[in-house]
Every structure is written in C-alpha cells, then in structure tokens.
TrEMBL record:
Protein known as: Uncharacterized protein
Organism: Oryzias sinensis (Chinese medaka)
Keywords: Glycoprotein, Signal
InterPro entries reported in the protein's UniProt record: Stereocilin-rel
Highest taxon of the lineage: Eukaryota
GO process terms (BP): cell-matrix adhesion
Signal in keyword set: yes
Signal peptide from the UniProt entry: 1-20
Cellular component, GO, one term: cell surface
Length: 867
C-alpha cells in the first residue's frame, strides 16, 4: 500500500473523553466509533490476548511517522490518548495501577472534532498488519471503526485500490461483529474498489441476518446499474449534475460479471431478477459450476428463487441433455423433480442432495438409492451411496454381504443416523448367530457406530473390559447408547472396578449413569476431581451439596456442577464475592437455570443496595457494564424502569446482545425492559422519529414491542420491524392479532401475496392458528411451508395439518399418494402422535388397509431411534 497513494478525509468525532457528561443520545441511534472499538476490544480480551505494550503503541501511533505523512501532528496526539481511553474502559481497576502505562489517559483532551487524514490510517494499518503480536488485536479493534468510517464517508473515490483494500482489511472486524453496520454502505463505489468491497462483504456474509443481506444486495444492484449501465434505480438526484436515467425494468443487468461479484448474495435476488439475466450468460454461469458454488455458500435459498433458477437453467438444455449436468446443481437439486435416471446419473444427483434438508424430497433420494442398488453386481455402488446408505431398507441391509457392510460402517463412521429397524438389521447382519457371550471386544469395537443396536446382554459380558483401554472408542460408543444399554454396561464394569476408578475413567454418558449411591462411594473430596466432567442434574445436586459442605464451592470452576447449586447456596455467598459469583455463573449459561438466575440477581441487587441505597437509580455506565446481561434481564420491573437516562447507551448495548430465551416467556421484566429500551431510544422524541438503525439496537427486544407502538413509527421502519419480527422465536400471544393486521395493512392481503413474500413474512401469519389454517391453497404453498418449517424449526400442529391437507388436496391420486408418504417420512419422533393421526386419516381417505400397513411400517422405519 502506498501511504501517499490517495487522500480521504473524514470527521472523527471523539465524544467526551472521560464520558463525564451524559452521552448524546440524539446521536445515539448509531453506535459511535468508540462503542464499536470497545466491543471489538472486549472480544480481544475474551480471547485472552495480552494488552499491547507501549513499544507497539509508540510504533503504531508514532507521531514522527504521522508527521512525515502530514504536518498536522495534532491528529496523532489525539489518537493515542483516545485509544488508551477506550482500552481503559474495558479494563476496570487496572487504571489505578501506578505502574500501568494506561495512566496516560489523564492527558486526554475532552472533545475533539478532527478531520482525520486517511494517510494516518494507512500508516497505522500497515504497522498493525506487520505486527505479529497477538496484542495487536486491540489496535486492530481501534482502527476498524475508523477505517469503516473512512470507507463509508468518503465521496470522491480517489483512493487507489491498494489503499482501499487496506481499509477494507482493517474495517472487516466491524462487519463481523456489528453486522448492522452494513445498513450504512457507501453511496458510490466504482471499478476495482467495488469488486474489492464485494469480496469483503462476501467474506462476512455468514454473520449477517437476512435483512442485512438483502440490504447488501440492493446496494450492489444499485452500484452495478450505475457503474456499468449508466442508469440508476435511486430517485434521480440533481438532474443536471449527472447524465443518468432511470433504469428500464427490462434491462438485462444480471450478466456474468454481476453474478460473480454478488457471490452468495444471489440468494437474496427476487425471482423476477433472474429474468434480467441473459440466457447465454446464465447457462455459462451454470456450466462453469459458479452457480453451484455461489448457492452453496449462501444460506438456504427460498423455494421461489431456487425454482426460478432451476427453470431458467433447464431452458438451456433439452431434458435429456440436462440430466448430464445434474452434478452442477448444488442445492438447486433440492427442487429438481428428477425423471428416472441411470445408476450413474442417480449417483451424481444423489451427491448434490446431501445438503438438502431431508424434509424437502425424501422420496427422491430413496428412489435414486434404489436405482443405484438395483445392479447388485456393481461393487462400488454401496460405498458411493455416502450418507444416503441410511436410506436402505432393513431388508436391503440384511441382504448385503457382511464384509461389505462392515466396510461401509468403518468408512462412514459415526455420522449416520439409523432407525431402530436398520440398526437391528445391521447388528444381525454383522454378528450372525453369535450368542451374547460369544461377542468379543473386537466385535464391539467394530460395531461402535451402531452400538445402539447391540443387545444389552452383549454389553454386560467380560469382554467389555477390553474396550475400557480404548477410551475414545468407548466414548464414541457410549454417546449413542440407550439408557438400558448404558445401565447394563455399567453393571458389568462395576463388578470389576471400584466407583472411584469409574469416575476417573468413564466417558460422559456412562458417567452420567452412575447412581448417586455409587457416586457417594467414589471418595470425591475436591472440586478438581469433578469440575471438567459433564454431570447429570441429580449428580450435580449431590456434588454441589458436597462441595458446599466442604467449603469448596468455587463458582469459577463449577461448570456442569452449577446445575446443582441451590438458591440457599447462592444466598450464602459473602458480599465481597457476589459480583464474582454473578460473573462466573453467567459464563456457562448452558448450566444456569432460570431459577438460579433469578436468585443470583436478587442476591446481587441486595448486596449492591447494601453498598449504596438506590444503587440502580444512581448507577453509572461502568457499574452497569459490570452486571452480567443475563442477570440484568431478571431485575424487577420497577428497578428497570428507574434506571437513569445516563446509562442508556450501555443499557442498549447490552440489550442488543441479550439472549431473551434465558428469560421465562411471561417474566414481568420482559415488557419493562422493552419499554425502558424504547424510552432510551426515543429520549423525548416521538416514536415516529425512530430510524431503522434505532430499532436495530433493540436486538431481540423488538419481538416484544407492542404493535400499538410499532404502528406509530415511520412507514419504512414499520416495514423493517415487521420483516425482522418474522424471525422472532417468540412474540407475546397478546400482540399477535394486531401484528397480523398490521402485516395485512403494510404488505397487502396475504391471500394475494406472491410466493417470495410468503417466504419472508409467512412466519408472522403462522403465529395465529386461525390465520394459518386459512392460508390460500396456492400451488407453491407446500414448498414454502416445508421451507419455513425446516428453517424456523416450527412444529405447530396447525402447520403440520396444513401441510398434510395441502398434500392430500392435490388432484392427482398417484402423486398424492407419493407425497403423503414423503410428508410422513419427514416427521420426527416428536410428531409421533400426529403421525398416528395422519395414518388414520390417510386410512380413512383411501380405505385401503394394505396402504395403512405400509404406512405403519414406514412410520416405524422413519422414526429416529428412541433414546
Ligand atoms: C518513529 O518514527 C521515526 C521516524 O520514522 C523513527 O526514527 C523512530 O524510531 C520511530 N519510533 C518508534 C518508537 O518506532
Ligand atoms: C493528508 O495527507 C496527504 C499525504 O501526506 C497530504 O498530501 C494531504 O495534504 C493531507 N491532507 C490534509 C487535509 O491534511
Ligand atoms: C513491515 O515489515 C517489513 C518486513 O519485516 C518491513 O520491510 C517494512 O518496513 C515494515 N513496514 C512498516 C510500515 O513497518
Ligand atoms: C456509460 O457512460 C460512459 C461515459 O459517458 C461511456 O463511456 C460508456 O460507454 C457508457 N456505458 C454504457 C454501458 O452505456
Ligand atoms: C450393471 O453392472 C454391469 C457390470 O458392472 C454393467 O455392465 C451394467 O451396465 C450395469 N447396469 C446398469 C443398468 O448400470
Ligand atoms: C464385497 O466384498 C467383496 C469381498 O470383500 C468384494 O469383492 C466386493 O467387491 C464387495 N462388494 C461391495 C458391493 O462392496
Ligand atoms: C470416535 O469418533 C471420532 C469422531 O467421529 C473419530 O474421529 C474417531 O476415529 C472415533 N474413534 C475410534 C476409536 O474409532
Ligand atoms: C479416599 O481418598 C483419600 C485421599 O485422597 C485417600 O487417603 C483414601 O485412601 C481414599 N479412600 C478410598 C476408599 O479410596
Ligand atoms: C479443567 O479444565 C481447565 C480448562 O481446560 C484446566 O485449566 C484445568 O486444569 C482442568 N482441571 C482438571 C482438574 O483437570
Ligand atoms: C386482510 O385485510 C382484508 C381487508 O381488510 C381482510 O379481508 C382479510 O381477511 C385480512 N386478512 C388477514 C389474514 O387478516
Ligand atoms: C432441516 O430441518 C430440520 C427441522 O425441520 C432442522 O432441524 C435441520 O437443521 C435442517 N437441516 C438443514 C441441513 O438445514
């Protein structure tokens, strides 16, 4: 990168250094650069990176260098103190250490408004890139938001590609950790810079939400139109300034270049956009397998766009010709209604279906597998099935030569999910007529991937001891075994080893099967013996009590033992250790129960108020930061309500990241927190003045905002909010009818929606059983519902019923029969009762007892193993 290669300026607003006055929340809709830097620095800290030494800082912020670049030395003298100030804010306590260099922060100016010269940044970035020290993470955290600001505020595009690339490199962490910043993409980027920007955006695709991805696509489309087609999609600016026209809707803008710079963002195209792709170009893009790779990197693409692509690609070929390219379909294959294919083509198509959600077209896979296996003399077929080997029926599995099946088990290992019927077939196939006591340790090892199908008696015998020496195999086996099998195995082992040894040696699932009685005999006297193992809840309760009595209940080291901690134990923590306890238990949220979180919050609150009455009413930002977010969620409503305005920024930051699933659905603090956050956002303004960036700061709290309040927002914010809420995992019951009505008002009557709209907003309609059951019976509705079901893990009865009804309503009886089977095949064990209901319904519909028997067999076959 040439330091003098280009110039750009942007205004660096350094807000009050000591944060003495309340943060300016009129500007608080966006996260300031310091907030972002702080967030990124906290990430460096959580990775355990050391703080940078002064020598590194001096070299990066070397004022001589900076002066060499530009004679306004003043700038560099502000940057270092600002850096130190942000760094200090994440290391509370350390700034009192007289030996700590961070004391320099005392020299910080109060407020600086500065034009920052990009060459300064370029210098710093170059130095940081050059540094191999892990502590440079903190420096990168600091220059990231500066670089991003430089990228989005500079208008004149005269940065050379190298400098631009350096800024992109430096800015990337912002987009990774604050993906909402993609809502602020630069107004205009041209040429190579545009390609580089898209490369960077492609790299951060995975961290974004669908709405952010759509935003990026919209932006890219605008840039493409303006850069390559001399027309614009935006409202025409000053008509005299540029000779630019509105793009014609028929413009064939989606050419090869556009397709390739968009990469995975093509998943956000509207189906109509695909019509803007010249046929030859699309065929080329497909044949070069670029389409497969773009789609492969994308998140699941909706059925409307997938089917559109598929349809246009098929137009490139005759049907017969097309079949020879099925291996370039990638995930589009999920929507390909394949005709009968040769075994070879079947295999090629099957390999594309691996990434498809099995719910989409389970019968197709089965058909392909049967086709491949039809030529039983074909030795390679079995291995080439890959994971689809699980689609072989128990009969097919039984019929395989034992060595061949054994080869498959060895090569595919543990990642296969078999049904009970298949497991039994495989084990019978492999063990033949062997009696339980004839099964050797070697046999057991060979069958570890199908351990769940082994008879319990075989696990009890003497050979089991042999496996103990192979701890990894034992772990692999035990992870799949059923309760009864684990018990049997443990029984066998208990005869040969004492409980103390077992606790030391056994892997997780077996360990969790040890009875409390035996645990008691295991001579556990210190937390170290048990801290790194995963215990069951009753075991954890036993161990926590024991540690409590031994005065060894060190919260930092509990891990899964935390499950057994009672409220009394939490109440017993000394005042001086309460904050430490609070921080420790929230570090392992998977072991923290809601009850414990509530008790810990109460205890914390009590302690804090002992320290200072009305602690929360007068809390400072730093004090709020110290309280773990999980516990903040449990504050009593009146405490939340009384939080001072001065902590709004910190409060919103915490709430944006909060995971509401750790809070009971009906917790009174849910509405209280939501309202407090809204009040923080508006800060005296009207709800109608909130921007999209504002409501984005609510994080999951947006799901809890009252419809009557959303209604008061600006139209684009309402749209954005509703689209976002379609991804909520929970929306309060009482809000649902009004929300659905608002969706109806904002996006038109759902019965007129096109497929694509249904894909993005459908989840809101499914919130209400009544609305859901009246969804129009469009031909594409089933695909959309299957898509939403798999994507949002929806399991409502009404959705299942609707799916079934849509399927059985199809006119063609043969198709209906085939699809009913596929729908039923898609049900999991959780849907067991519903499955039976369907089978009965199917039976009633067709009055064919034979098919019921078949379906029942199918049901047993598809139901995953009950563990
Ligand atoms: C700062 O830059 C000057 C001039 O480039 C150089 O002589 C000096 O060694 C640098 N100081 C540090 C601490 O890197
Ligand atoms: C920024 O730095 C460049 C390169 O050193 C210099 O040419 C330019 O005058 C500087 N601009 C400002 C406003 O300081
Ligand atoms: C970066 O490192 C290379 C090789 O170590 C060195 O030649 C170069 O001068 C360094 N650049 C800066 C800006 O420190
Ligand atoms: C766009 O305009 C520029 C300058 O007016 C011209 O050179 C270029 O050929 C135009 N491109 C297209 C695709 O019309
Ligand atoms: C079956 O296998 C034989 C021998 O490998 C081969 O010649 C034949 O073409 C295969 N049949 C089909 C339908 O693939
Ligand atoms: C089955 O095993 C035999 C002998 O090990 C081998 O010759 C044959 O090719 C294998 N067949 C399959 C389908 O793997
Ligand atoms: C146990 O499972 C792991 C992960 O699936 C695998 O890598 C490993 O080889 C297995 N161990 C044995 C002994 O087969
Ligand atoms: C229990 O542990 C203690 C200390 O480690 C040891 O002295 C004692 O022998 C152990 N008792 C049994 C039954 O293992
Ligand atoms: C438990 O795991 C932690 C982190 O991996 C490690 O530091 C500690 O030494 C382990 N303790 C025991 C007793 O193995
Ligand atoms: C949407 O609004 C129209 C007109 O007000 C109404 O007829 C229709 O039932 C509404 N649909 C839903 C799903 O609420
Ligand atoms: C498929 O859908 C199920 C739920 O219907 C979901 O749990 C699973 O994660 C999905 N799999 C993939 C690969 O998307």
């Amino acid at each position: 990168m040439a330091p003098n290669g280009g110039t750009c300026f942007f205004i660096l607003i350094v807000t009050s250094a000591a944060l003495a006055q309340p943060p300016d929340l009129t500007a608080g809709d966006k996260m300031g650069f310091q907030d972002i830097a702080k967030k990124l620095m906290m990430k460096c800290q959580s990775k355990g990176f050391p703080l940078p030494q002064m020598t590194l800082l001096k070299s990066v912020f070397n004022s001589s260098d900076l002066i060499a670049a530009d004679r306004t030395a003043e700038q560099s003298s502000t940057l270092l103190p600002t850096f130190l100030q942000v760094l200090t804010s994440i290391t509370p306590g350390k700034n009192n250490d007289p030996n700590n260099q961070l004391n320099l922060m005392n020299t910080v100016d109060k407020i600086t408004n500065k034009m920052l010269n990009c060459s300064h940044l370029s210098f710093m970035i170059q130095k940081i890139k050059n540094s191999s020290e892990s502590s440079s993470c903190f420096l990168r955290a600091f220059v990231a938001p500066l670089s991003w600001t430089a990228l989005i505020t500079q208008e004149d595009n005269n940065l050379d590609p190298d400098s631009y690339d350096a800024l992109l490199w430096a800015a990337k962490p912002v987009l990774v950790d604050v993906p909402s910043e993609t809502m602020k993409l630069p107004t205009k980027v041209e040429g190579q810079n545009m390609k580089n920007m898209m490369n960077m955006l492609q790299e951060v695709y995975k961290t974004m939400t669908d709405i952010q991805r759509t935003q990026v696509l919209k932006w890219a489309k605008e840039q493409i139109m303006e850069n390559y087609f001399n027309c614009t999609l935006r409202p025409l600016p000053d008509p005299q300034s540029v000779l630019m026209y509105h793009c014609k809707p028929s413009l064939q803008w989606l050419d090869l270049e556009s397709l390739s710079i968009m990469g995975p963002y093509i998943s956000q195209l509207m189906p109509e956009d695909v019509d803007s792709c010249p046929k030859q170009k699309l065929c080329e893009f497909f044949l070069s397998a670029q389409l497969r790779s773009s789609v492969g990197e994308a998140a699941e693409m909706g059925p409307s766009l997938s089917k559109k692509f598929l349809q246009r690609i098929q137009e490139c070929f005759s049907e017969n010709e097309f079949q020879h390219h099925v291996d370039k379909l990638g995930r589009l294959a999920c929507y390909y209604d394949a005709p009968d294919l040769t075994p070879d083509l079947s295999q090629r198509l099957l390999s594309q279906l691996n990434d498809c959600n099995h719910t989409l077209n389970p019968m197709l896979k089965k058909r392909l597998v049967n086709c491949m296996m039809s030529n039983s003399s074909d030795a390679k077929a079995l291995l080439s099935l890959g994971n689809s080997v699980t689609l072989l029926s128990p009969e097919q599995l039984s019929a395989l030569p034992a060595t061949n099946l054994s080869n498959v088990l060895q090569s595919l290992g543990l990642n296969l999910r078999w049904t009970t019927g298949q497991l039994l077939s495989i084990v019978r196939n492999q063990l033949g007529d062997k009696k339980c006591d004839e099964v050797s340790g070697k046999d057991l090892l060979a069958l570890q991937s199908v351990a769940a199908g082994l008879p319990s008696c075989a696990l009890k015998n003497d050979k089991v001891e042999e496996i103990l020496t192979d701890t990894e195999a034992l772990k692999n086996m035990s992870q799949q075994m059923r309760k009864g099998q684990l018990k049997a195995m443990l029984q066998g082992l208990l005869g040969k080893m004492n409980p103390s040894e077992l606790v030391q040696k056994l892997p997780g699932p077996l360990l969790r099967s040890i009875s409390l009685n035996n645990l008691n005999k295991a001579n556990i006297t210190s937390l170290d013996q048990v801290q790194n193992k995963t215990w069951s809840r009753p075991q954890a309760a036993y161990l926590a009590k024991k540690m409590f009595n031994l005065k060894q209940l060190h919260f930092q080291k509990l891990n899964s033992v935390l499950q057994g901690v009672t409220c009394e134990m939490i109440d017993n923590v000394s005042d001086s250790s309460v904050m430490e306890m609070a921080q420790a238990i929230t570090k392992t949220p998977q072991w923290l129960s809601k009850v414990q979180a509530r008790c810990a919050t109460q205890k914390l609150l009590l302690t804090l108020e002992k320290m200072r009455p009305d602690y929360l009413k007068t809390i400072t930002e730093q004090e709020l930061d110290a309280i773990p977010t999980t516990l903040l969620l449990y504050l009593p409503p009146w405490n939340v309500k009384n939080l001072p305005d001065s902590v709004c920024r910190a409060f919103l930051d915490k709430m944006q990241m909060a995971n509401l699933s750790s809070l009971p659905l009906h917790a009174p603090s849910r509405p209280a927190i939501t309202q407090r956050a809204l009040l923080c956002l508006t800060n005296g303004k009207n709800l109608s003045e909130l921007t999209i960036a504002d409501v984005s700061r609510l994080g999951q709290l947006l799901c809890e905002v009252k419809p009557s309040q959303i209604q008061l927002m600006a139209p684009d914010v309402i749209k954005f909010s509703l689209q976002t809420m379609a991804f909520c995992s929970h929306i309060p019951q009482l809000h649902r009818p009004d929300l659905i009505q608002m969706v109806n008002q904002t996006f038109g009557n759902p019965s007129d929606w096109p497929e694509k709209t249904m894909e993005s907003l459908g989840p809101l309609l499914l919130l209400d059983d009544n609305t859901a059951s009246f969804l129009p019976n469009k031909p594409w509705m089933k695909d959309v519902l299957v898509f939403l079901k798999s994507r949002l893990h929806l399991t409502s009865d009404i959705l299942q019923k609707k799916l079934f009804d849509l399927t059985t309503a199809a006119s063609n009886a043969a198709r209906r029969k085939r699809e009913s089977k596929s729908i039923i095949a898609a049900f999991t064990l959780n849907d067991h009762e519903y499955l039976l209901f369907q089978i009965k319904k199917y039976h009633d519909l067709y009055h064919v007892s034979e098919s019921s028997v078949y379906l029942l067999q199918l049901a047993i076959e598809v139901a995953p193993l009950a563990m």
